[in-house]
Design a protein that fits this description.
- There is one protein chain.
- With 258 residues, the protein is α+β, with helices and mostly antiparallel strands.
- It has a single domain, classed as DD-peptidase/beta-lactamase superfamily (Beta-lactamase).
- The chain contains 10 helices and 9 strands.
- The strands form 4 sheets. It has a 3-stranded antiparallel sheet with strand order 6-7-8, with helices on both faces.
- A hairpin with a 4-residue loop joins strand 7 (150-156) and strand 8 (161-167).
- The longest helix is centred in the middle third of the chain and has 13 residues, at 112-124.
Length: 258
């Protein structure tokens, strides 16, 4: 029996599809992405939506940039608060006077309780046999596109969100086998080497002892599968009208959480 923690850890796409099917509509997911800085109304040069109104978005079938995805993941480490990324934070003249300072825009995107569960799932991904054995608390998720054309890793520490993409400018540049071409082998090691480099730094730019924020009250109760697995979906996840059964998935029993 798998739960959502297992589904994320082992990249069991059937669980992801099953969850979306239970929600009954892609709109709650598109609304969430919109809150995380990935506009649900953004259109590509060919006129199609970057985040289409299709069930396949649950499997990552969206056309977004690395900085968009990294900023979205940063929300999980920031207690559910989304911060619009800036490339230049501050400019000083030769006298040390600040002549420009970016005004960062922040919005509350995810309820801290639900965000804590997502963060816990990401941290759980880096435990046991999958642990990188870093001094710094960390979590993350790998990703691999069809035919091993792209490898992804979105890594989090209490102070950093690191997005890594590996691949070629053309889709024909790819690995021929999944056991060497998936994001676990192509992108995740980059994160590990980067954090280890920071941990060895002596200038004080990184603190390996920083901890993720503690989950709020109700976290343990909400992650009790035995209590919640027979309960109906929360009201905010229910579609306004019954959605067509357009998702065909294998029958699999899952718990909502641990």
């Amino acid at each position: 029996m798998y739960n959502l923690y297992h589904g994320l850890l082992y990249s069991k796409n059937s669980i992801t599809v099953r969850l979306l099917k239970e929600i009954g509509s892609v709109e709650p997911l598109r609304d969430l992405l919109d809150k995380l800085g990935i506009s649900k109304n953004e259109k590509l040069p060919n006129g199609r939506l970057a985040v289409p109104q299709l069930p396949s978005i649950a499997l990552g079938a969206v056309d977004i940039s690395l900085i968009q995805l990294t900023a979205a993941y940063a929300t999980f480490a920031n207690n559910g608060t989304y911060t619009v990324p800036v490339l230049i934070k501050r400019i000083k003249d030769k006298e040390g006077k600040v002549i420009y300072e970016a005004k960062q825009k922040v919005t509350k995107a995810i309820d801290p309780l639900y965000n804590a569960i997502m963060l816990d799932m990401l941290v759980n991904n880096e435990t046991g046999e999958f642990s990188m054995h870093l001094k710094t608390p960390n979590g993350g998720k790998t990703g691999t596109t069809d035919d091993q054309c792209d490898g992804w890793y979105m890594g989090l520490t209490p102070d950093l969100a690191v997005g890594i993409w590996t691949g070629g400018d053309d889709k024909w540049i790819r690995f021929l086998r999944d056991d060497v071409g998936q994001g676990y082998f192509t992108a995740k090691p980059v994160f590990e080497k980067f954090i280890r480099k920071l941990e060895k730094d002596t200038t004080g730019i990184h603190n390996a002892n920083t901890k993720f924020i503690d989950p709020p009250s109700g976290f343990k109760e909400l992650t009790n599968c035995k209590k919640h697995k027979t309960e109906p979906l929360p009201e905010f996840l229910r579609p306004k009208k019954p959605a067509e059964d357009s998702l065909k998935v294998q029958h699999i029993q899952i718990d909502t959480l641990k």
